[in-house]
Amino acid sequence: MNRIEKILEFLNQQPKDCFLRHALALEYIKMGADSKARDLFIEILTDAPDYIGSYYHLAKCLEKLQETTLAIEWYEKGMAAAKLAKDDHSYRELQAAYEDLVY
């Protein structure tokens, strides 16, 4: 059984688990299924906007898909969420990626 199959098996038991969905999205990226990853990250952040780690990966995925405007929007949403959560490390990481894209 490969990693995706294992994660999907766990998700059958806990379909809204953000950690599992995030891990699945990262596996999709590894296999080049960027659109599937994008959709899953958006689903995660729609359900749990405080799941800070997914903002960076979603925006990077959008960059890869050449959806620059959306990537900028998600970086901005992520920075706002990180600031609200007082997660300085994530805020700086999102800000650096945002600035690399915008400037």
Brief descriptors of the model:
103 residues, mainly alpha, Serine Threonine Protein Phosphatase 5, Tetratricopeptide repeat, 80% helix, globular
Describe the structure.
α3 (34-47) packs antiparallel against α4 (53-64) and α5 runs antiparallel to α6. The mean pLDDT is 97. 80% of the residues lie in helices and 0% in strands. The protein is globular. The protein has one domain: Tetratricopeptide repeat domain (Serine Threonine Protein Phosphatase 5, Tetratricopeptide repeat), CATH 1.25.40. It is mostly helical. It starts with a helix and ends with a helix. It has helices spanning 3-13, 18-30, 34-47, 53-64, 68-84, 88-102.
Quick summary:
By secondary structure, the chain is mainly α. It is built from 6 helices and no strands. Helices cover 80% and strands 0% of the residues.
